[in-house]
Specification:
The chain is built from one helix and eight strands, in the order βαβββββββ. By secondary structure, it is mainly beta.
């Protein structure tokens, strides 16, 4: 199965020199596999600085999982057996990153 990925965008104000550096860098993505998930999902994280908040939100807007992660994390293994079948939004946020990707749980 192909992982689902999303493009990360920066919301910080940057100078012209820093903007030129960012344009030369390839876009960063984070992804989830397998998707749809049955018993588990692996969330692959992009490189980022500092701490970030990883959350999983159901379609009613309720957070069903929250974790604070640091830049050394490359991936997070998540047990989806505790979740009912359905569509979820996986969010990664900090001062510079605001990204989300959909995850389907189907058994």
């Amino acid at each position: 199965q192909k992982p689902v990925s999303a493009l990360l965008t920066s919301t910080s104000v940057i100078g012209i020199h820093r903007l030129a550096e960012q344009i030369q860098q390839p876009p960063q993505t984070f992804s989830i596999a397998p998707n749809p998930a049955q018993d588990y999902a692996t969330i692959y994280l992009p490189a980022f600085q500092g701490m970030a908040r990883l959350s999983i939100v159901n379609m009613r807007g309720e957070e069903v999982f929250v974790s604070i992660i640091n830049e050394s994390n490359a991936k997070v293994q998540f047990d989806t057996q505790q979740l009912p079948n359905g569509l979820y939004m996986v969010r990664l946020t900090n001062e510079a990153i605001h990204a989300h990707v959909r995850m389907l749980v189907s058994r």
